[in-house]
Amino acid sequence: MKRAQTFIARTCVALAAVLAFGPAYAADADTQTNGDWKISIGPGLYVFPEFPGSSRIKVFPLPVQDISWRDRIFSQGPDVLGVNVLRGENYHAGMSVSFDFQSRSSSDDARLDGLPNVHYGPKLRLFADYTYWAFTGSTAVYQDIGGTGQGLTAMADLYVSAPIGRLLLSAGPGLTWANGAYTRTFFGVSQPESVASGLPQYSTGSGLRDVHFDLAANYTISSHWSANLVAVVGRLRTLRCRQPDYRTQVGCERNGLGRISLLNAIYQPDYIQIRKSLRYRASGACFRNKLRAFSKT
User: Fold this and answer.
1) What was the pLDDT predicted at 35?
2) What pLDDT is recorded for position 63?
3) What are phi and psi of 191, to 5 degrees?
């Protein structure tokens, strides 16, 4: 058990090193257009754990889009379609349909043999954020709408942003709460599952899922291109995971979690005008939205 914890901790350190010495450039590019539309597209790379608490990672190469109309309707990364119901110079509140990559397969780890697979799918996201000077507070609630059994999670984060030339760094702490449906799906063992897997039966409930630290970075390369990095490092702290045998076999210990949620390059057409800003706005900065969307995984 100690060896497993050590390996997980080293995994987190390795990911943190990537954040510090990789393309960790940040600049909030608050993109303005000559008309009603704002459009940015580019290649992206998503890196995250195979399942919550896993020390192994998955890598998905995916295109990244940041499209909005009048700062009202938007499509940004995993947020397939969203609307800012309330918006102002320093705040946004709204909803979106977000695609979540969080999943688990019995083939991911031998210790999961006999447990049901958990599939990824769409979630309804309700969000709000407010910015004062260089500080942004945000909250978001994610509800499973795809029948994957992932229940409901809620996040709260606080960021501080600092521009350095073409670079803007935004970083800060956050936490995630999960309801009973979520924790039962990923950490519970029902009586039939106990028979199939050989694990002891275990009931769990709602509680604090994790405490994490977010880092977002954007570097403006030229009038057309910018590079973005979004990452999360933290520790799973599921309060109901207290049964030693289950923690050892399934990974419900207070394990480290670390991932690079997004690494991409964004292309902006000629008619897009770039304006750097200290405001770290939910719909005005591509990497800002993705930090909030992916730190839940």
Assistant:
1) 77
2) 84
3) -60, -45
Distance CA 120, CA 102 (A): 5
**Cα dist. 265→12, 90, 217, 219, 233 in Å?**
24, 26, 12, 9, 22
Which residue ranges of the chain lie beneath pLDDT 70? 1-34, 238-297
Token pair belonging to 286: 């591509």
CA distances in angstroms from 43 to 65, 122, 207, 257, listed in the order given: 9, 22, 36, 25
Please state, in angstroms and rounded to a whole number, the distance separating the CA atoms of residues 237 and 52: 11
Give the Cα separation of 59 and 125 in Å (integer).
24
pLDDT at res. 258: 53
Express each pLDDT in 66-116 by its tens digit.
899 999 999 998 899 999 999 999 999 999 999 988 899 988 888 889 999
Q: Return the pLDDT at 101.
A: 86
Q: How many CA atoms lie within 13 A of 46 on its CB side?
A: 22
User: What residue ranges in the chain does DSSP mark as E strands?
Assistant: 29-33, 37-49, 57-69, 73-76, 79-87, 91-100, 121-132, 135-144, 152-164, 167-178, 207-220, 225-236, 256-267, 272-276
Q: For residue 287, which of 195, 220, 205 has the smallest C-alpha distance? A: 220
Q: State the CB neighbour count (10 A cutoff) for residue 170.
A: 26
User: How long is the chain?
Assistant: 297
From residue 133, alpha-carbon distances to 43, 130, 202, 278 in Å are: 31, 10, 47, 7
Global pTM exceeds 0.70 = yes
